[in-house]
Amino acid sequence: MMKKVYIIISAYNEEENIHVLYSSLQNELSAIKFTDYELVFVNDGSKDKTLDFLLELQKTDDKITIINQSKNFGHELAMTAGLNYVGNTNTMSDFSIIFMDADMQHPPKLAAEMITQWLNGKKLILTKRIENQDTGMKYRLMGNFYYWILNVLSDVRIPRNMPDFRLLDKKYVLWMNGLNETDRMFRGMLSLIGLRDAYILEFEAPKRNAGRSKYNFLNLYKLAIDSVIQFSIKPLRIATFMGFLGCFLSFLFLCTSIYISHIRHEPKTGFLTLLSVSTFFSSLTILFLGIIGEYIGRIHIEVKNRPLYFNEIIKNED
């Protein structure tokens, strides 16, 4: 049976990296003897010349397919577009896909190693980043806090320092395409399926070839909220527990007030205590309403059943 590898590359404002990445991939892939491959570039609504450069490359290489998103839908949906394209166009042959970014922090040499391991029988190949030359202490602390919150509150454990740079065999592609939720986080979705058969390759992420990272604190915050709510109802359970705890503490406070005022006959106004307790529980109420609102909001989006993205598939017709 014919084997084929689809390399799905998400790109957002990466005009300075496209040619470097393409040349590097060509060098690495030419050294591997396998049947066929296709470079699937997902242009995620870039505002620079990323699409123009991709169209130039496509004129000289019919192995390039461009998925041009109508706007910037985000990294997760860019990968979803590539995943859906492969799943919809290739269901008969033996194939795999590789997810990678266009900023050269996912080394093309490692992509070639993934393909070699796949040809040797590995079905799920993950990467583990042991060092990132492009991040400082601030980013690492944010990352540590993000994964701590995620794994404390989520029912699905998501390994740390394992980026979306990975290879999935055909069966994993079909399983992933069967997950229809709107809020998507590929690392969590794959953990939901199971990582028991995963083969792990370690690597050091070099500095970006050009440009700067698109992630900041707000992006990580939104990703953390989406990740927790997508894979867990623990926040709702915590809210319920805190509600019971609040009722219990209120009862104790009432009993203490009765004892001080009517048994010990101590004159106490209790104004500041009442104010602080009232403020505390009012804040908890607002917090828990916010948590419930997050879940209801996602239900609202899901039931609309809107398309996750809009794009056009551009192929070399020559």
TrEMBL record:
Please provide the record's keywords in A-Z order: Cell membrane, Glycosyltransferase, Lipopolysaccharide biosynthesis, Membrane, Transferase, Transmembrane, Transmembrane helix
Please give the CDD domains that the UniProt record associates with this protein: DPM1_like_bac
The organism's superkingdom is given as Bacteria
Does the UniProt entry include the keyword Membrane? yes
Q: Specify the Glycosyltransferase 2-like domain's residue ranges.
A: 7-152
Annotated transmembrane regions: 238-260, 272-296
Keyword check for Repressor: no
Q: Mind telling me which InterPro entries this protein's record contains?
A: Glyco_trans_2-like, Glycosyltransferase_2, Nucleotide-diphossugar_trans
Q: What is this protein called?
A: Glycosyltransferase family 2 protein
Supply the source organism for this entry.
Chryseobacterium gilvum
Source taxonomy? Bacteria, Pseudomonadati, Bacteroidota, Flavobacteriia, Flavobacteriales
